[in-house]
Amino acid sequence: METFSAEVMHVVGPDERDDHDLTPYLERISEGRYVLVVRKGGSPSWLDRVVAFLRRDSIEAVTVVADDAYEEGDELHVTATKTEMAGVFDATEIREA
Prior knowledge:
By secondary structure, this protein is an alpha+beta fold. The chain has helices at 24-29, 46-55; strands at residues 2-12, 34-40, 61-66, 75-82, 88-96. It is globular and about 40 Å long.
């Protein structure tokens, strides 16, 4: 299990899955659920953004499969289990920050 803060960048609802090019594995584990693309670590401050730019650090985006709907921009605390697919987590608990 892993716990991290995250900012929702994109949401794919259960009825929108056909409009996106999901891998067969992601399609299978997200059936009837929401696929959230999140910025791991949450929304950085402007100073953090400047430092990341100067260091050429990239945004760490991961995918979280969740039972509930969230909106782009939502700040979350996620407890999730890594899946067999790199960068994809299966949420066990999500709380809004």
